[in-house]
Amino acid sequence: MATRDVSLFDPIDVGRYRLSNHLVMAAMTRNRSPNEIPGDLNALYYGQRATAGLIVAESTAISEQGLGWRESPGIYSSAQVAGWRRVTDAVHAGRGHTFLQLWHCGRCTHPDWRPGNTQPVAPSAIRSIGGMTVGGAWSQHAEPRALELDEIPGVVAQYRQATTNALAAGFDGVEVHAGNGYMIDQFLQDASNQRADRYGGSIENRCRILWEVLDAVVGVAGADRVGIHISPTNVHHGISDSDPEKLFAVVADGLNGYGLAYLNVVEGATDPTEKEIPFDWARLRRRYRGVYVANNNYDRARALEAVRTGRADMVSFGRLYIANPDLAERFRRDAPLNPLNGPYIIAEGSTGYTDYPSLGN
Ligand SMILES: Cc1cc2nc3c(=O)[nH]c(=O)nc-3n(C[C@H](O)[C@H](O)[C@H](O)COP(=O)(O)O)c2cc1C
Predict the structure, then answer these.
(1) Is residue 1 scored above 80 in pLDDT?
(2) In degrees rounded to 5, what are phi and psi of residue 201?
(3) Residue 326's Cα: distance from chain center in Å?
(4) Hey, is 199 helix, strand or coil?
(5) CA separation (Å) from 135 to 32, 113, 120, 183, 341?
(6) Does ligand 1 lie within 6 Å of residue 266's CB atom?
(7) Given a cut of 60, is residue 209 above it in pLDDT?
(8) Is the CB of 125 under 6 A from ligand 1?
(9) How far apart are CA 133 and CA 88, in angstroms?
(10) DSSP assignment, residue 74?
(11) Whose CA is nearest to atom 7 of ligand 1?
């Protein structure tokens, strides 16, 4: 494969920013925001990772309706905006850049896990096969109710307001979460969308909410401060499509018209127990004309190769960034990596969160 004179460790221009390297810290839920408000502990965690070219801060509820579960943060109250300001200040103090991942969980929740105990909403009244462990016991997502046609503009408006709030909190931009089986993905993929109106049926109809959300978000932030996250074959939460190659070719073509800061693609299933669906990732990469960020099971060697050959413009790392706050420097020196402290990935407090050592301390 052809190579380029560009390295993972070089600066790169993304949207309106010059990032210090080609590494992205992927969005990761850590459930450490009591009352859904981020605070000093979260600021310390993200600030420790500021040497990533870009930090995508974890899935953050755009509204109470979009909140999947308690202790994951939101961006719909002034207290949350103030809390996130501490995080963005910490990242900027480390000369880093950070985008906030805008999240509406759609059907992937349960009334018991939400303030107000409201029933989840989704494109169609089809229950997710996923769930989560609450109070030590596993519990399935509840059956959602289908959004009424006249409720959809309200959902789009939540994304618009969340973007305004994220910028007020000091974020450099936002990432629209259109993957992993959450709300927008539920519209895109046909197993979860059986609507008979203009938001369901054809691929064009299933993509409609994505374009409306992007129009709203871009209208606030400008395309050069907006990224997007898709996961075409991540069968997470029972999400799937009868023809993902065709669907995501249409998505890529539509995205080309926006000139966004970047497209983050989860290449395959993130859960090794899930089935792998064949998909031509290199073709999607070629089809998309902007900055392509590759994700899922990348390590140092694969990332160096991907950037050198042009297979990706940037690489995003999830689990490696949990355990290695200075991942960019460790990769640069080819230094050993810290192991992941598994039981503390989703937990309370600083253990397994802010206590991973950097080189030299
Ligand atoms: C603890 C944990 C939380 C995650 N939370 C999110 C999230 O909030 N938003 C998201 O888009 N992906 C989330 N992911 C998926 C990661 O962003 C990433 O796609 C996945 O870990 C694969 O990358 P990796 O092999 O580098 O870890 C999460 C993954 C982990 C391990």
Answers:
(1) no
(2) 95, -105
(3) 21
(4) coil
(5) 16, 11, 20, 25, 21
(6) yes
(7) yes
(8) no
(9) 30
(10) B
(11) 28
The gap from C-alpha 147 to its chain's centroid, in whole angstroms, comes to: 23
H or E stretch at 264: strand 262-266
Closest residue by Cα to atom 3, ligand 1, is 28
Predicted local distance difference test score (pLDDT) of residue 32: 97
pLDDT at res. 235: 86
Q: Which of the two residues, 116 and 244, has the higher pLDDT score?
A: 244
Domains, in order of start, for the chain: 12-344 (3.20.20.70)
Task: Output the residue whose Cα is nearest ligand 1's atom 5.
Answer: 28
Positions marked active-site: 182
Atom of ligand 1 nearest to the CA of 345: 1
pLDDT tens readout for residues 128-157: 998 887 777 888 999 999 999 999 999 999
**Using a 6 Å cutoff on CB, does residue 345 contact ligand 1?**
yes
Q: What angle do CA 253, 10, 13 make, to 5 degrees?
A: 40
200 C-alpha vs ligand 1 centroid, how far in Å?
28
Q: How far apart are CA 33 and CA 67, in angstroms?
A: 13
Q: Confidence class of residue 237 from pLDDT cuts 50, 70 and 90?
A: confident
- Using CA of residue 119, residue 123, residue 127, residue 132, what is the dihedral sign? negative
**Cβ 27 under 6 angstroms from ligand 1:** yes
Ligand 1 binding pocket includes 29 (Cβ within 6 Å): yes
37 CA to centre of ligand 1 in angstroms:
20
Is the beta carbon of 60 within 6 A of some atom in ligand 1?
Answer: no
User: For residue range 170-181, what is the model confidence (pLDDT) as tens digits?
Assistant: 999 999 999 999
**Contact in structure between 8 and 21 (CB atoms under 8 Å):** yes
Cβ of 24 closer than 6 Å to ligand 1, yes or no, is no
Alpha helices in 222-326 (DSSP H): 244-256, 281-287, 300-309, 319-323
Using one digit for the tens of pLDDT, what is the confidence trace for 316-357?
A: 999 999 999 999 999 999 999 999 999 999 999 999 999 999
CA of 354 to the centre of ligand 1 (A): 17
Q: What is the pLDDT of residue 124?
A: 98
Distance 83 CA to ligand 1 centre (A): 22
196 CA from centroid of ligand 1 (Å): 33
